[in-house]
Amino acid sequence: MTDLLAVRDLGVAYANGRVMAVDGADLTVPRGAMLGLVGESGCGKTTLARALMGVLPPGARVTRGSVVLDGTDLVALTAAERRARLWRELAFVPQTAMSALDPVYRLRDQMREVLCERGGLSRAEADTRAAELFEAVGLHPRRLADYPHQFSGGMRQRAAIALALALRPKLVIADEPVTALDVIVQRQVLDTFRDLSERMGLSAIIVTHDISVVAYLCGHVAVMYAGKVVEHGPTEAVLQRPSHPYTMGLMNAFPDLESDEAVLAPIEGSPPPLSDPPPGCRFAPRCPFAVAACGTVVPPPTTLAADHWAADHWAADHWAACHRVAEAPALRAEARRPATWQGVAERLA
Ligand SMILES: Nc1ncnc2c1ncn2[C@@H]1O[C@H](COP(=O)(O)OP(=O)(O)OP(=O)(O)O)[C@@H](O)[C@H]1O
Predict the structure, then answer these.
(1) Which family does this protein fall into (predicted)?
(2) Which residue's CA lies nearest to atom 4 of ligand 1?
């Protein structure tokens, strides 16, 4: 079966093309899958999510590539055609639910607006569906009579998820849906997504800077660095066998919950300015494994060789954009040593 969403070589520019916030990004979302889009601040996650939704801010535009949702290239559609697909095909859950919910309307009225005006339901049908949606996200239907300010942060976020699901969209895109919440409430909201995924086969992209959110919730992951997706695959494969040096470095920056070996080695330096990225691999200036080609040639997405994974059925879906991908097992071992990451900038200079 084809993937629900296939993004190929997507480019998005701000400031008349001077800042390429997304520069040749590739990703896929299989049907019924949750994809975690992970990367550090400023790597272009929000821009990519907004480009998928077709709601870029003024001054931003898609410069190249395709976004094929269920067989239709959304980039080729007019703005009006794209707007008509919002809610129905693609729905958005923002970081703070307050930007999805209108403070002056009761939740029931906001549900009615989407369900009646966009979905063509009668009021009675809309009210029944709204109650079902609230139940699906763990809220009592009685709370539909409340205003957003009467909800706690976690409840508001669940109400925003219910609203996003109103017209049974094919794909939900959630931008840092738990970042603004405290840890216990984060868990409740993540469990809501997990439940929806298991019970309803929800397909979603979860944008996050937090690998532990991906590990908890997402069956697939796309790792983004400086405007590009550098590694992509089933979460288990990517987290157990990171194959791009940036992913290896990210993993080192998170404590391993299953072992006492606390190797916390930061990746030195910072991502390049997107107005003037380096030629070749964008991670090369911070990469302990960079070779001459990395400074000049952009590495293409390369599927991991089958022999890394002989027995694993998901091997074919795991790729990394690194010239040294064939050496990934050896590099991974090196990457676990904190010394590997020390003084990289000086060594490369
Ligand atoms: N309106 C804008 N005009 C110009 N540049 C912008 C604009 N919005 C974002 N950028 C730039 O685009 C790049 C990507 O930003 P984006 O917000 O997509 O990244 P992000 O990974 O989502 O970061 P964060 O996690 O901090 O939200 C950044 O370098 C940012 O400075």
Answers:
(1) Belongs to the ABC transporter superfamily.
(2) 14
Q: Which residues of 157-171 are buried (b: 16+ CB within 10 A; e: fewer)?
A: bbbbbbbbbbbebbb
pLDDT greater than 50 at residue 48: yes
CA–CA gap between residue 321 and residue 298 (Å, rounded): 8
Q: Take residue 343 and report the two structure tokens written for it.
A: 């003084």
pLDDT confidence bin for 306, thresholds 50/70/90:
low
Tokens of 15: 């400031």
Atom 29 in ligand 1: residue holding the nearest Cα: 42
Q: Tell me the percentage of the chain whose pLDDT exceeds 70.
A: 92
Instruction: Please check whether residue 205 is in contact with residue 221, taking contact to mean a CB–CB distance below 8 angstroms.
Output: no
**How far, in Å, from the CA of 90 to the mean position of ligand 1?**
22
CA-nearest residue, atom 5 of ligand 1: 14
Burial of residue 278 (CB within 10 Å: 0-12, 13-18, 19+) is middle
Query: What pLDDT, in 10s, does the model give residues 237-251?
Result: 899 889 999 999 988
Q: Which two tokens stand for residue 277?
A: 């990225």
> Looking at ligand 1, which atom is closest to the CA of residue 15?
4
Give the nearest ligand 1 atom to 47 CA. Answer: 18
Q: Read out DSSP for 124-144?
A: HHHHHHHHHHHHHTT--GGGG
Question: Using a 6 Å CB cutoff, which residues line ligand 1?
Answer: 14-15, 19, 21, 39, 41-47, 57, 59, 209, 274
Which residues partner with 86 through β-bridges? Answer: 90
Which atom of ligand 1 is least distant from the CA of 227? 14
The answer to whether the CB of 75 falls within 8 A of the CB of 67 is yes
User: At 263, is the pLDDT very low, low, confident or very high (cuts 50, 70, 90)?
Assistant: low
CA of 28 to the centre of ligand 1 (A): 22
Q: What is the pTM of this model?
A: 0.91
ipTM of the complex: 0.96
Q: What is the mean pLDDT of residues 208-224?
A: 93
Phi and psi at residue 68, to the nearest 5°: -95, 110
Other Cβ atoms within 10 Å of 1 Cβ, number: 6
More confident residue, 224 or 254: 224
CB 69 within 8 A of CB 4: yes
Question: How are the residues of the chain apportioned to helix, strand and coil, as percentages rounded to the nearest 5?
Answer: 40, 20, 40
